[in-house]
Amino acid sequence: MNRTTLSLIAGATALAAVTGFAALGAPAASGSDTRKTAARLPVEQTRLLCPQPSTSDLADTSYTSFTPVVQGAGGSGKAQLAVAAEQSTDSTATGKVGKASKGKKQSGAPTLTQKQPGTPATGDASGADTPALVGTATGSFAPGWTVQETTAVAAGTGRGLLGTSCTAPDTEFWFPGAATTASRTDYVHLTNPDDSAAVVDIELYGKDGNLKSTVGEGITVQPHSSEPILLSTLTQAQESDLTVHVGVRSGRVAAAVQALDDKQGGDWLPASTDPAGSLVLPGIPKDATDVRLVAFAPGDSDADLKVRLASPSGEITPAGNETLHVKAGMTTAVDLGDVTRGEAGSLVLTPTDSPVPVVAAVRVVRGKGGGQESAFIPATAPVGTRASVADNSAKGTTLALAAPGATATVKVTASAGSEGGTAVTKQYTIKGGTTQDVDAPVPSGLKGTYALTVETLSGGPVYASRMLQTTIEGLSAFTVQTLPDDRGTVAVPEARQDLSVLLKK
């Protein structure tokens, strides 16, 4: 095989690995002058990692795996979750998550297996010894695969409803909104899906800048394992508003911050989208009693941002918080109070002058006094082509859609139920500059739980989030997950020359 052939194959392989693995079809024409626009093909493999759900013996956790039906996806494949580190040898694919067992190596048996795209699969676990999970989806299960981890904690620090969309491995994460105060117990969970160890650095930034410490440097995460790191062990400073930066020196990990509060419950703090000059934080609950915005500018320049709330009737300016000045390398926080005032809302941050990349998240509190519960909404990417969220119920699910720019039309599909029911689809038009809590569709004849898939049909970018609400020991508990583009396809430019011709030489 000559050098030209090797170069073409290497290039195609690298492109296919951007967001998974995509099949590379033969071009329709051949010849050295043939030029084709990049085709978008379904990915053929997706990895997702679910952190250890809780340290509480009172925790009950459910897992929901879902892949939308995607045209052009492979006809075979599978989607499975397995214990990240050690597990007992009696773990089976029955929907019950196997428990970690010291001294026993991972058996490789899946803890949860999805049977077909378009229908969710569910599993559950309980107690403090429920381990982190590593998931792999291939073939027709890979494009748009999503897994929801939802935990109900009846009492104690962090009581309430904790939810997170299991995340893909990467090499850098930003978490504005963490804390190391006496009332908070925050962990950063690092999960390594690969066969070699990963080396990770954790940096903390408070109101005065970097909290210099060598404790967070060079943390080794062993292959196929997970490490929860208590943030208060990395610094002696007590900071109510922290930005956590996770950088990977070698390998890759999935990272998530679990924020547990003595009085205001707890939830997962997902990573903010990549630093950008403009950010959208969608779906602040209309009955929020307190909203705290935390922002951080990672570069060398200060950022000046306009703060707007996209409400159902249009953009409004929070009184007294028209702008936000974010000093470079320092975490800035502002309390917006009950900014939504009984209406759906999304925060929109835009530069007042020259754009400076920032990351941001909001901490949302609902309820009052001893009935308070909290959740986090990070700045997120738009829905793009398609995004899904699993573990919805007929009651207690709120879907928020925001169109901060031009008016947009989206299609929302409620999947079949995990135990029965028929998929239903609706279309919605979201006026530019607004946020709408839409009446999301519910599968006809629903039994079990279901997934929602949002697809952009026309117009400007749409940002979305889903709120789950339930009652735990008399407490109104909730969690919020954003819906960024699922990156279920990858752009693969067709070769300028048919590879089969070169292979014959």
Structure description:
With 505 residues, the chain is mostly beta strands. It contains two helices and 38 strands. It has helices at residues 3-16, 499-503, and strands at 39-42, 45-50, 59-66, 79-83, 112-114, 121-126, 133-138, 146-153, 160-165, 172-178, 184-192, 198-206, 209-210, 219-221, 225-230, 242-250, 254-261, 265-269, 279-284, 288-296, 303-311, 314-316, 323-326, 331-337, 345-351, 359-366, 373-378, 386-392, 397-403, 408-414, 420-422, 424-430, 434-438, 444-447, 450-459, 463-472, 475-482, 489-492. Strands 10, 12, 13, 14 and 16 form a five-stranded antiparallel beta sheet that branches. Strands 19, 21, 22, 23 and 25 form a five-stranded antiparallel beta sheet that branches. Strand 26 and strand 27 form a beta hairpin. The radius of gyration is 23 Å and the shape is globular. The relative contact order is 0.17.
Shape: globular
Average residue-wise pLDDT: 87
Strand content: over 45%
Summarize the main sheet. 5 strands, antiparallel
Class based on secondary structure composition and strand pairing: mainly beta
Radius of gyration: 23 Å
- Helical amount among residues, as a percent range? under 10%
Which consecutive residue ranges, at least 5 long each, have pLDDT under 50?
A: 1-35, 86-95, 98-109
Q: How many alpha or pi helices?
A: 2
* Strand element count: 38
Terminal CA distance reads: 8 Å
Using brief descriptors, characterize the structure shown.
single chain, disordered N terminus, globular, 505 residues, mainly beta, five-stranded antiparallel beta sheet
